[in-house]
Design brief:
7-stranded mixed beta sheet; about 30% helix; globular
Length: about 475
């Protein structure tokens, strides 16, 4: 008779938890996975997937305008918010079904309930009160938007969660935050015809991204008509007598809008999980503390994805899940590799980036070379749009390795994925130089910037 009910119990049905549960079950392990809301987690249900669908929707206005320059006559266009929501919901339901079937087809038991730890091997299923035991446990409960509870009137605001299901498209919106979620939604709402204002406490949006990318996107957003307010924060939100909301800022400005969205970071979902009862350690932010192999302070309990607050990206959670499988079930201890992760901001224009920003590279290497190109893409020549693309390579002068690659412009996210391969392989600038260009493309600039634009020596910029 087995000592435990399950070989593995997974708490959380997002990308990391589902991957861990499905693969473990495919290996013949007795697996159960519990999810209290919907399978698919933040990414599929209320994150990157519906967001990308909204990004596509918000771009058509510019596509219609651009078509005229290429000889098309485009009639009057209208947008139906409710049709977009319905189409989005249908696609999410389809994807959720795929997640569930993947688990069930591999023999995992799917439990639609909240699960909480009773002790280091025992889990309580909240819906029924039943307790079960497991030899190994994975916690993959993800994160949720910080409600900014200290802000008076925060309960009147929405987060990215609610933005996907608003009953009506607002006429105006104020978005608080300067990270990728705030920036992406500012572009989405603006593209759908909403009067959009972005307010951020910092001196520039998108902290930790390369400065050229940050400034280039800021300029492009303002030129599109998005208002960006920097070095200011919302101090209070109240209802307006005639409807809508009013935000009072630290600088004394009042901003009246239909909707206010708070995009002020995300918190790990660890409240009420019974972590203390099981002896699982958390840090000051409530994130689960793990070692290099994703093990918590209790060796047979692992944590994956956003709940650990390491790198909050879906592919990272999936990668951590596969490393967990190698470590826990294949006698092959494997630590997740969090270095050189390609990432994208699906703004308009997009940012795609991998490796070090120029600013970060300057702190790590005594001498760097910067190769930078800024140009009008071919599509804009006939459309008449004034947009610019920026491409940038950051090179360690001593080793000649390309340590950072950054793109601002159409399809930058696609380029970042491919740029991740040569940077991960440690290729040099000379490897880029001897790679043949594909013409005519924007990406060819990445292999035709033969001379550095400038060098940075011990933090000081000098001519190349």
């Amino acid at each position: 008779m087995a000592a435990y009910d399950y070989d593995l119990f997974v708490i959380g049905g997002g990308s990391g938890g589902v991957r861990a549960g499905r693969v473990a079950a495919s290996l013949g392990k007795r697996v159960a996975i519990a999810e209290e809301y919907r399978f698919g987690g933040t990414c599929v249900i209320r994150g990157c997937v519906p967001k990308k669908l909204f990004v596509y929707a918000s771009q058509f206005g510019e596509h219609f305008e651009d078509a005229v320059g290429f000889g098309w006559e485009v009639g009057t266009s209208t947008f139906d918010w409710k049709k977009l929501i319905a189409a989005k919901d249908k696609e999410i339901a389809r994807l959720e079904g795929l997640y569930r079937r993947g688990l069930e087809n591999n023999g995992a038991e799917v439990l639609e309930t909240r699960a909480e730890l009773v002790d280091a091997h025992t889990i309580r299923l909240v819906n029924t009160g039943k307790t079960v035991t497991a030899e190994k446990i994975v916690i993959a409960t993800g994160g949720s938007p910080n409600p900014h509870a200290a802000l008076p009137g925060h309960e009147l605001c929405i987060s990215s969660n609610e933005a996907f299901d608003l009953p009506e498209l607002p006429r105006s919106i104020l978005i608080s935050g300067g990270g990728y979620i705030a920036v992406e939604f500012a572009n989405i709402f603006h593209g759908l015809g909403v009067d959009t204002t972005l307010i951020y406490r910092g001196k520039e949006i998108l902290v930790r991204f390369d400065q050229d990318m940050r400034q280039g996107l800021h300029k492009a957003m303002v030129e599109k008509g998005i208002r960006i307010v920097l070095t200011d924060v919302i101090e209070e939100v109240t209802k307006a007598p005639a409807g809508g909301l009013v935000a009072r800022t630290l600088s004394g400005e009042t901003i009246a809008v239909d909707t206010i969205m708070l995009a002020l970071g995300r918190d790990p979902n660890t409240q009420g999980l019974g972590l203390e009862a099981a002896g699982v350690e958390v840090n000051e932010r409530g994130a689960i503390v793990v070692d290099e192999y994703s093990r918590t302070s209790i060796p047979h309990i692992y944590a994956l994805g956003d709940v650990t607050d390491r790198v909050q990206l879906t592919p990272v959670a999936i990668h951590e899940a596969m490393c967990f499988i190698e470590t826990a079930f294949k006698d092959n201890p494997t630590a997740p590799d969090h270095e050189l992760i390609p990432t994208a901001v699906f703004s308009q224009p997009e940012i795609g980036t991998v490796g070090l920003s120029e600013e970060a590279a300057c702190k790590k290497y005594p001498v760097i070379e910067v190769y930078r190109a800024e140009f009008r893409p071919m599509k804009a020549t006939l459309s008449g749009r004034a947009e610019k693309m920026i491409m940038k390579l950051v090179v360690d002068a001593k080793s000649r390795k390309v340590v950072g690659a950054h793109v601002l412009g159409h399809d930058a996210g696609e380029m970042a994925q491919l740029l991740g391969i040569p940077l991960k392989a440690g290729l040099t600038k000379e490897d880029f130089d001897r790679t043949m260009a594909v013409h005519p493309t924007a990406a060819e600039e990445l292999v035709t910037m033969y001379k550095p634009s400038y060098r940075v020596v011990n933090g000081e910029r000098v001519d190349a």
